[in-house]
Amino acid sequence: MTATLELPTPEVAAEAQAALRLFEPVLKRAGRKHVRVRPEDGPAAQTVIVPRHAFELFLEVLGQMANGNAVTIVPVHAELTTQEAAGYLNVSRPYLVKLLESGALPFRKVGTHRRILFEDLMAYRKKDADYRREVMDELAAEAEKHGLGY
Questions:
Q1: Cα–Cα distance for residue pair 37/66, rounded to 1 Å
Q2: Domain spans, the chain
Q3: pLDDT tens, 103-123?
Q4: Among 40, 48, 56, 79, which residue has the fewest nearby CB atoms (within 10 Å)?
């Protein structure tokens, strides 16, 4: 994950939005396992068969770019540095190190450096989001019980 992220320019975002509108009907064709794409620079009759899941990911990238967001792709088995992992979780690096040292998040050491599997980060983030949702539901129920109007 050493590539620098660049926000799409307004022109690129507009191109992504236009492409997304054109590709949207393709996904509405239910039951297809593949999508056929014709490269612009290839021979007129040449098409490329793309797995549907890969095409859906491509559309997700286009959607994010259309919204002006930078996108990166990380394999689930990738190992991240503590700085990269902290960025993914949107927390400070010292806070992440505390999570690691407390055992809340598994890691391994490479020399003196900690490495965290991306799939472990995803699992932690999901678990944390589920816990936060549960607490918010409890707070909302308590507020409703006391007629606080939230």
A1: 20
A2: 10-66, 79-145
A3: 999 999 999 999 999 999 999
A4: 40
